[in-house]
Amino acid sequence: SSELTQDPAVSVALGQTVRITCQGDSLGRYYASWYQQKPGQAPILVIYGKNNRPSGIPDRFSGSSSGNTASLTITGAQAEDEADYYCNSRDSSGNHYVFGTGTRVTVL
Amino acid sequence: QITLKESGPTLMKPTQTLTLTCTFSGFSLRTSGVGVGWIRQPPGRALEWLALIYWDDDKRYSPSLKSRFTITKDTSKNQVVLTMTNMDPVDTATYYCARYFHSSGSRRFDYWGQGTLVTVSS
């Protein structure tokens, strides 16, 4: 079973803000990274570390962390942000990696 | 420009051994902080991390699948190979390789291949 838990689905009105959470014991020690995956496509990295965006990722994507929960926030969601989002981090042992259960974001 | 591409069989029979190759360009597996990982995704399901090989040849495997995996690298060919024994229909998935990078305390899979669908069926 996955050690990182996400809500299965969230919806957001166009232009509004949505926060996606990822819960796991290891997140109290390690940063999460976040990946966006659209149907039929490979995942792409959108946030890593404390709150870093790779080149080309819009600044409406941001990351944060508190205790055992990491969050990805989309401020001013656009239609093209509709996708599945996965968190990833090291597991409790620190020796392996694990992906979250995934959250489907629907933009209304 | 960093690219990765997975190659291997698309159809397997149960009990066979799967060998997948990740061929990459634009970076070197001799560089400190760099690695290549394998991740899979069964149809309609979540991503699952499988294995990771680091620049220093350290290797990590998913604890639940560890006994079935071997990951190796050929630095001169810019390739990483994943071998998975005793394939089963539940192993049907799209298999991705991705570059791993560690810098300034943060770790991530920053570049991904397009993925290759492997179907296991008798």
**Spatial separation of the terminal alpha carbons of chain B:** 40 Å
The total of helices of chain B stands at 0
What percentage of the residues of chain A does DSSP assign to strands (E)?
over 45%
Multimer state: heterodimer
Task: Give the topology.
The complex is a heterodimer of chains A (108) and B (122).
Chain A: E1 5-6, E2 9-12, E3 18-23, E4 33-37, E5 44-47, E6 61-66, E7 69-74, E8 83-90, E9 97-99, E10 103-107
Parallel strand pairs in A: 2-10
Antiparallel strand pairs in A: 1-3, 3-7, 4-5, 4-8, 6-7, 8-9, 8-10
Chain B: E1 3-7, E2 11-12, E3 18-25, E4 34-41, E5 48-54, E6 59-61, E7 69-74, E8 79-84, E9 93-103, E10 106-112, E11 116-120
Describe the protein in words:
- The complex is a heterodimer of chains A (108) and B (122).
- Chain A is mainly beta.
- In chain A, 0% of the residues lie in helices and 45% in strands.
- In chain A, strands 2, 4, 5, 8, 9 and 10 form a 6-stranded mixed sheet that branches.
- Chain A is globular, with a radius of gyration of 13 Å.
- The model of chain A has no long low-confidence stretch (mean pLDDT 96).
- Chain B has 122 residues and is mostly beta strands.
- Chain B is 0% helix and 56% strand.
- Chain B contains no helices and 11 strands.
- In chain B, the strands form 2 sheets. In chain B, strands 2, 4, 5, 6, 9, 10 and 11 form a 7-stranded mixed sheet that branches. A 4-stranded antiparallel sheet of chain B has the order 1-3-8-7, with no helix packed on it.
- The termini of chain B are far apart.
- The model of chain B has no long low-confidence stretch (mean pLDDT 96).
- At the A-B interface, strand 4, strand 8 and strand 9 of A face strand 5 and strand 10 of B.
Question: Tags for this entry?
Answer:
heterodimer, A: 108 residues, mainly beta, 6-stranded mixed beta sheet, 4-stranded antiparallel beta sheet, 10 strands, globular, B: 122 residues, 7-stranded mixed beta sheet, 11 strands, 0% helix, 56% strand
